[in-house]
Structure formats: C-alpha cells, structure tokens
Amino acid sequence: MLEKWVGAVNGIIWSNPVIYVCLGVGLLFSIMTRFLQIRHLKEMIYLVFKGKSSEAGVSSFQAFTMALSGRVGTGNIAGIALAVGMGGPGAIFWMWVMAFIGSATAFVESTLAQVYKVKRDGLYRGGPAFYIEKGTGLKWFAVIFAVVALVAMCLLLPGTQSNSIAVAFHSSFGIDMKVSGILVVVLLALIIFGGVKRIAKVAEVVIPFMALGYILVSFYIMMTNITALPSVFSLIFRSAFGMDSVFGGMVGTAIAWGVKRGIYSNEAGQGSGAHPAAAAEVSHPAKQGLVQAFSVYVDTFLVCTSTAFMVLFTGMYNVKGPGGGYIVHNLPGVEEGTQYTQAAIESVFPGFGSSLLSITLFFFAFTTIIAYYYIAETNMSYLVPDHKAKWPMLVLKLVILGSTFYGTVVKESALAWTLGDMGVGIMLWVNLIAMILLAKPALLVLKDYERQRKQGLDPVFDPERAGIPNTECWSNGYQQPADELTITIEPGKLQAWESK
C-alpha cells in the first residue's frame, strides 16, 4: 500500500514536464549569467582555497566540502549505476548536460543564500527559506520551503543513504542490516550533537580523501580497459540521441533518468547546497556562488562519471527496456544500482573489490546524512527563534536518527530510493519558483563582482551600491574576521616595537 502511494506521488513530482522545466531553468540561468560556468572556471578553482573561517562563519573550503558532503553520496555510486540500468548509457550524457547548466543554477541559489544570510546564535545561517522571505517578502512561501525541507531532510532522504550502507555491508561482510543501522546512528549522533563547526571539520577531512580515492580507483579501471575508451564514448553519445541500434527507442527514458539522477546527485536547484554556502565567511556573495558552482562540476564530472565509466568500461550492467524485460542482460539476477558498481570493481580487484566499494559507499553516504542534518537544523532555526530552539533541535536530532535507522531495516531498496526522489522533488519545485522570482538580485551581485574584478580589486560587497535592500549581514559593510585584519605600525614606532 505504502509503495503504491509513494510511487504515485513520485510519478507526479517527477513527471516529464517537470524534468524539462529543470533543464529549461538551468539553461535560462546559464544564458542570463552569460555562461559563467565557462567564463569563471579558473576563478572558481582559485576561490575554493581562498579565505578563512571566523567565529560566525566557516571558510570557503569548508563550505565547499560541506556542500560536497551533501552532493557526493550514494547517488554517485548506486544512483548513477541505476541510471545506466534504467535509462541506458545515454543517461550519462544527459547527466553531464544537467551538471553543466546546473552549475549556473547552483551559483544563483548559493549567491542568494549569501546575500540574504542572517546571524543566529552567533553563526551565519541562510538558505532558500531565508532568501525567499527577505527577497520576496512572502513569509508564507518561505515557511512552506522550510517545512518541506524538514520533511525531506529528516524523513525522506536519510533512509536512502543508510539503506545503501546496510545493503552493501550485508552483501560484502555479512553484517546484519540492523547492526549496521546501530553503528551509523551512534556515529551520526556523536557528530550532530557537536554542532556546525564539528560538521565542517569532519567534511573538510573526509570529503577530499574519499572523493580522490574513488576517482583513482576508477582511473585505474579505465586504464586497464583503455582500449574500450572510444567505444564507450561513442555508445554514450549514440544512445543519448537515439542513434544506437540497441538503445534507439530509449531517448525519452535516457533524458528522464539522466536529469533525475543528475539533480539527485549534484542537487543544483534543490536548495540544499545553498545552506552551507550561506555559512561561509566571504567578502562578496558571488565568491561563494562560484565555489558552489564548481562543486557541481566535482560531483558530476569527476565522481559520478567515475562510476559510469567503471560500469560501462567493464560491461557490468543490465538495461531494462521501456516495455519491460532486458535489452542488455550482462548480470543475470543482479539488482540495479550498487551491485553493478561492486561487480565492476570486483572484476578488476577480485577478492576485495566489493569490500572496497562498501567502505567507500559508507563514507559517501554517511557524510551525506550529516549534510542532511545541517540543512534540517538551518530550516528549524528559521522556523523557531533561538531562545525557543532547544527542544525542537533535540527532537530534530532524534527524528533524523530514527529515520536513518529505519532506512537500514527497509528490505526493499526501491522504496528507500522512491522516498528519496520524492524528497528531492518537493524541495526542487518550491526552490525553482523562488529562484526565478529572485534572479535579478543574483545577477546584480554577479555584475558588481565582475565590475570590481575588472578594476583589479578583491571584490567587497556593498548592498546599497549593488541596489539590493534587506541584507541583514551586509547592511553595515563587510567586516573582516579578526585574524585577517591588517595591522599597521607607524614608522616612528617600528624600531621600538622590533626591540621588544
């Protein structure tokens, strides 16, 4: 009963018109920003490693890794393999398209989050709920997003990640799924009860390590099958446009799965990446917007593509036809998703490939659950004043711990994935409308940033000069963190100072 109801709702949320709207909005923002994802690529990489944290905010790199912890999850392993299994190799091309145009979408939402961020309990907070209220004045609309985000992040999405961990551990090590659930919940509790700074520290250490390791494994598998490189690229492009004899009738399915899995993975337009973006200490909102645009590239073009290439280079996948049955059946009896990637790695690293992927999947999925908690906490902070937030925050922690454990005991992985898709979809619907309404402030910020860069300046945001009102944290001008202040000494006092 639950499966049928969830499937019906999900079918509406992810209907074909919605999928094409996602593509259209990303293309619109790309055109409006004059394809900043190409023009400012070098600047994006530079800004990731520039800047420091403060008492109120995290560094650009920490915000980057916090956002990546949400973007890089089980969707990068199981979700991409699932896209190949359901949409064929052509789904990978449309996933790339979604990432390219989605980086402009990520810039808009993350820049807005910085512009309209606030300081709550001594820390920067922001995200769609905040910029909807401050940018449009529609408080009810902002509350809708905050409630939707809480439902998605606390109830619908954590189970997808924890279920993948439990299934992988059970398959590789024979560990009971409930035991895996207890382990994940205990570790999660230790981190989320430590606050935002602890979340940032964990993400800063774990994310680069796990992403680089996964990419290196993929690169090795590609090198061992390098002769397949031309045929794999040809297969992806031919399948994407219906020119392949096997996958010719799957163009619509390829687009749908590529877009859906691309959004699920890189989260551009969903609003989730905007939350950690608001927490960054930067002198200009566009800086963090560019950093978050680059995080979409890292997520999709590096991590997701690594999974796709491992599966396609080794031939370890099945593809279901639109009318039922298999049109490619290389792995009889193997369920779509994680097991394709496990089989691909196992074919090159026999004996421990499956175990290696399970450990990697744990880090991917676990850090994503941490990101979900942070996003949920930010939206609870929006709904509840600081002096009344103690008990709601405690309930929030307990709920996300409970839904995480529930995901590990759900025997049908398909249900967990459908719930996750529904969570992504409902946030996407609300946030895309808000972003269209607030495109002008984001474009004004980009224009101001580019003007200062042309003058050879390190851009500093002045909302009055940019023509953007109601910017709480920027109203008195940018204040440098104490450890970044420049100390000057009068020439006459220099000798005396040096002698001390």
TrEMBL record:
<keyword id="KW-0812">Transmembrane</keyword>
<feature type="transmembrane region" description="Helical">
    <location>
        <begin position="137"/>
        <end position="159"/>
    </location>
</feature>
<dbReference type="InterPro" id="IPR001463">
    <property type="entry name" value="Na/Ala_symport"/>
</dbReference>
<keyword id="KW-0813">Transport</keyword>
<keyword id="KW-0472">Membrane</keyword>
<keyword id="KW-0769">Symport</keyword>
<feature type="transmembrane region" description="Helical">
    <location>
        <begin position="296"/>
        <end position="317"/>
    </location>
</feature>
<dbReference type="Pfam" id="PF01235">
    <property type="entry name" value="Na_Ala_symp"/>
</dbReference>
<feature type="transmembrane region" description="Helical">
    <location>
        <begin position="356"/>
        <end position="375"/>
    </location>
</feature>
<protein>
    <submittedName>
        <fullName>Alanine/glycine:cation symporter family protein</fullName>
    </submittedName>
</protein>
<keyword id="KW-1133">Transmembrane helix</keyword>
<feature type="transmembrane region" description="Helical">
    <location>
        <begin position="179"/>
        <end position="196"/>
    </location>
</feature>
<feature type="transmembrane region" description="Helical">
    <location>
        <begin position="395"/>
        <end position="420"/>
    </location>
</feature>
<comment type="similarity">
    <text>Belongs to the alanine or glycine:cation symporter (AGCS) (TC 2.A.25) family.</text>
</comment>
<keyword id="KW-1003">Cell membrane</keyword>
<feature type="transmembrane region" description="Helical">
    <location>
        <begin position="426"/>
        <end position="446"/>
    </location>
</feature>
<feature type="transmembrane region" description="Helical">
    <location>
        <begin position="57"/>
        <end position="85"/>
    </location>
</feature>
<feature type="transmembrane region" description="Helical">
    <location>
        <begin position="12"/>
        <end position="36"/>
    </location>
</feature>
<feature type="transmembrane region" description="Helical">
    <location>
        <begin position="91"/>
        <end position="116"/>
    </location>
</feature>
<feature type="transmembrane region" description="Helical">
    <location>
        <begin position="203"/>
        <end position="223"/>
    </location>
</feature>
<feature type="transmembrane region" description="Helical">
    <location>
        <begin position="235"/>
        <end position="259"/>
    </location>
</feature>
